[in-house]
Amino acid sequence: MSFEILDKSLCGRIGLLKTRHGNIKTPTLLPVLNPVKQELSAQDIAKIGFDAVITNAYLLWRNMKGKPRDVHDHLNFNGPIMTDSGAYQILRYGAVEVKPEEIVEYEKLINSDIAVILDVPTGPDDDWNKAKESVEITLHRAIESNKIRDHERLWVGPIQGGKYLDLVRLSAKSMYQQGFDIYAVGSPTGLMEGYKFSTVLKMVITAKSIIGSGNPLHLFGAGHPMFFPFMVAVGVDLFDSAAYALYAQDGRYITSSGTFRINDLKELPCNCPVCSKASADDVRNMSQEERKRFLMIHNLYVSLSEVKRVRQHITEGTLWELCEERSRAHPSLSLIHI
């Protein structure tokens, strides 16, 4: 692995992460792409300006009945691709059909650039004992993966424990000993949906204090772009989000400081390539699928714009000022304390 740090502000840093299919400039967002039902293609996402995406190796394994195919060919995308292993499905449905070692081997066969072992996420409502179980199982799978992980791609060690910071600390220490290329803080989705931003930041800070600055840190399920400056400020380098699609499905129009229902807008407060060619009425009069596609593209443009804004503030050494500005965007952000 090669990760070069170019600039810093607070714990945020501009970095260059090298992969076999190109370099990733960090901090950055990896849009979540469903490998089975691509409502927005990887080519569409690349045209917007993203140089890397994340997709789900488990969904690909299940849809392809375990038959390997290069994920770059499958998505028709030649940039860096990160693959998750099915942890989200475990969180949502309780189990997956694939064995931990199977999905690791499969991620090798489909030629992932950044691959995640099959961890067990900590649920937002788990008690301490249940959370500890998720930490222990994830660590056991990490140790077992040492036998079959290769050096052809970057491997991600997920850090579990959720809101229990003592468990996050334990998980980070144990995972760090396994020598992963990238570490990832898992299980923030339920907390983010409940606007418990301070808890997520404390999880990141706890993990970061253990793994140090030598390896990139990923945050799963980063959510709304108004939170991007805060997570980067405490040390997150990579983050993924499906919010652009989930919000679009619900008719929601993202801005850097909040979200609007498209039915409530009189004007489109954005001049991205799609918004500059349409009015709010035009969008409302679209078919459901056309409107969803429009909103997905707009939401991605706004998300990428915020990533670039964060990078610029790091370069200028003013990331704190951006966090102060964004803290006024939502009541839960103004209450952040770490």
Describe what you observe in this structure.
This protein is of the alpha/beta class. It has one domain: Queuine tRNA-ribosyltransferase-like (TIM Barrel, Alpha-Beta Barrel), CATH 3.20.20.105. It is 43% helix and 19% strand. It contains 15 helices and 13 strands. The strands form three sheets. An eight-stranded parallel β-barrel has the order 4-5-6-7-8-9-10-11, surrounded by six helices. Strands 1-2-3 form a three-stranded antiparallel sheet. Strands 12-13 form a two-stranded antiparallel sheet. A hairpin with a 2-residue loop joins strand 12 and strand 13. The mean pLDDT is 95.
Essential attributes:
338 residues; alpha/beta; TIM Barrel; eight-stranded parallel beta barrel; three-stranded antiparallel sheet; 13 strands; 19% strand
